[in-house]
Amino acid sequence: MCVSLQLNHDTDSFLALTTDGINFLLSDQEICDVINKCHDPTEAAEVIAQQALQYGSEDNASIIVVPLSAWGKHQSSPTVYSMSRNFASSGRWA
């Protein structure tokens, strides 16, 4: 399958490639929120992979975060990775 996307250098800050071990437990919005709070792509990938493992991922939990032109423009202020949730309403337990 081939997918083509047009990048906007003013607004597109990253590309996140994830495996199902992450997507099964974290929503796209949760992943984007964490990445926007991180100072660099390596930190973002580590935080997300660790969070998926803490949520009980039983599959490959891999992520690559590719910084794009607008990296850092949309970062939230303090770096707090609050991803608490009710497991009954998430991924594996839904």
From TrEMBL:
Q: Which residues form the PPM-type phosphatase domain?
A: 1-68
Which is a Pfam family this sequence falls into? PP2C
InterPro entries, per the entry: PPM-type-like_dom_sf (IPR036457), PPM-type_phosphatase-like_dom (IPR001932)
UniProt-listed PROSITE patterns: PPM_2
Name the source's superkingdom: Eukaryota
SUPFAM superfamilies annotated for this entry?
Answer: PP2C-like
Q: What is this protein called?
A: Protein phosphatase 1K, mitochondrial-like
